[in-house]
Amino acid sequence: MAEMVGRKFYESPPVVERAVSIFATIDPETYEKQIPAWEALMRDPFPDYEPVTQWKLNVKQQQDGAPIFDPSSAEIIIHHRFWRKSPQGKRRWCIQVRPERLTVNLVRVDDDGRKFEEISDVIASWLPRWVETFKVDKLHGVKIEYVNVISARVTPQFVTKEGGIRISDVFRLFSGVPMVHEGLAPPYECQMTIVCDKKLPCYLTVHVFGSEYAGQPAIQIRFSAWTNTLKKILAFPELADEVAFAHSKIVEAFENLFTPEAKKSFSPQ
Amino acid sequence: MIYAPAPQPASDSVSISAHANESVRAVSSHVRPSEARYKFRQRYFSPDQGQTTIRLYDYPEVVVDVSNFSFELDAWGIHMPCAEIHDLPRQICRRFMTLWGKAVRRSQSDDEAAAWLSILDRVDYSEFTAQRAEPRTLEGVLLRKQPFFYVEWSDDSRTKLTSKVGAALNLLDPGELFTARVKIGRDEQILAVSGVVPLGPKEDVMAEAFADWSRKDSGEAAEEGNAAWRQPS
């Protein structure tokens, strides 16, 4: 599948994290049973293990309309993250396993520039082992996430002396307000899902919101391109193309939604 | 053009949370709950990286004391702070193996014995013991290798082995007698084969064994006959 926009490389893009997820059907018993074996596989290459607890609650409404906690469906789930640190000792690479997906995260450490191909290489290396360990035989699609941050730390060129972020100079969506105003104040959150391909399917979500990064006020701009649905069965040979297509939508969003001024400041190579 | 919502999977980002919209709605109740019960969504635990499995019949129940945010694992006698719940799988393995060791050594206290019985009601103990069992040394004949490994054991039973398990028999020729260390699981399922020692073609081994018997038999019969002849009537 051809990319709609020619890909450019930048020396200092505002990307602070890239994540690629592969969705599959895994037998729940097999998943639980094989977690120790997966932990053993991860021990040397990704030695920093981080269990993440998810507390799931359900709230239901009583007849009088008052919400109450529904104890019958409260659950605790442990998710597993395996990290590899940079030479500076900071968490850089992460492999996450969940009952229905494998995720590889590449987190920015300081100012080091990374490329999407590095994630592809890690996936190519670990996907077969994941498939074998968890007896995966059905894939349902992929999801690619890019986390961009506009802040004094990442993009100082767009932060005023007073600490304000010139978002309208950076991003073309959700930033222009067609009325006289002196600025924007929190809460600031906007989200949109674009239908890129109804048949595949492929959707792209653009999510912009006020946040924090490295202890400083920031605006996050998240691009998520995903192709997975439970009804879809993706053959293993088609996976690489699907990842490439979803990534091309991220690239397209980046090129079309950041302003020319912003892209110039990211130092195109 | 606005289409129907496309259900988006939750974010997998690890660095910064984007779940700004998720929140627990306020609970309105005239009675403040003292505890909250949660199902802990894990039934398989392994004390040794997958070599042995402690399988629970059902997901265990965690009872949270909301006054101090600690929890107890129902019927296991495990109490921990909620902040450490991610360590619960390891603590379950520790509790199980500790009580199991004491049961084997017959050194459980009365309380521990009661706790162990309670745990045994919840765990597939036969699977655990089958996995812990040491391999046995068995003798058999490799009947064929293709299209699958097929073995006849010394008790005349025959087993088809998976390619992974049977791979240890690859050094044998079909029709060859052998001994091996065989790990047997539940329902007599063969889990692993190791330490394979070829003994030679079955016919040759049998012929040699019968030849020995024949020599012994003929010698002993002659002796018996001579002895009988010498016995006074």
Secondary-structure topology with pairs:
The complex is a heterodimer of chains A (about 270) and B (about 230).
Chain A: E1 15-25, H1 28-42, E2 48-56, E3 59-61, E4 67-69, E5 75-85, E6 91-98, E7 101-107, H2 116-133, E8 138-151, H3 167-170, E9 189-197, E10 202-213, E11 216-226, H4 239-257, H5 260-265
Antiparallel strand pairs in A: 1-7, 1-8, 2-5, 3-4, 5-6, 6-7, 8-11, 9-10, 10-11
Chain B: E1 35-40, E2 44-45, E3 54-55, E4 61-65, E5 70-73, E6 78-81, H1 88-105, H2 110-120, H3 125-132, E7 136-144, E8 149-153, E9 158-161, H4 163-166, E10 176-184, E11 190-201, H5 202-230
Antiparallel strand pairs in B: 1-4, 2-3, 4-5, 5-6, 7-8, 7-10, 8-9, 10-11
Helix pairs in contact in B: 1-2
Characterization of this structure:
The complex is a heterodimer of chains A (269) and B (233). Chain A has 269 residues and is α+β, with helices and mostly antiparallel strands. Helices cover 23% and strands 36% of the residues of chain A. Chain A has helices at residues 28-42, 116-133, 167-170, 239-257, 260-265; strands spanning 15-25, 48-56, 59-61, 67-69, 75-85, 91-98, 101-107, 138-151, 189-197, 202-213, 216-226. In chain A, the strands form two sheets. Chain A has a nine-stranded antiparallel beta sheet. Chain A is globular. The mean pLDDT of chain A is 89. Chain B has 233 residues and is of the alpha+beta class. Chain B is 30% helix and 27% strand. Chain B has helices at residues 88-105, 110-120, 125-132, 163-166, 202-230; strands spanning 35-40, 44-45, 54-55, 61-65, 70-73, 78-81, 136-144, 149-153, 158-161, 176-184, 190-201. Chain B has a five-stranded antiparallel beta sheet. In chain B, a hairpin with a 4-residue loop joins β4 and β5 (70-73). The longest helix of chain B has 29 residues, at 202-230. Mean pLDDT of chain B is 82; it is low at 17-31 and 225-233. Chains A and B meet through β1, α1, β2, β4 and β5 of A and β1 of B.
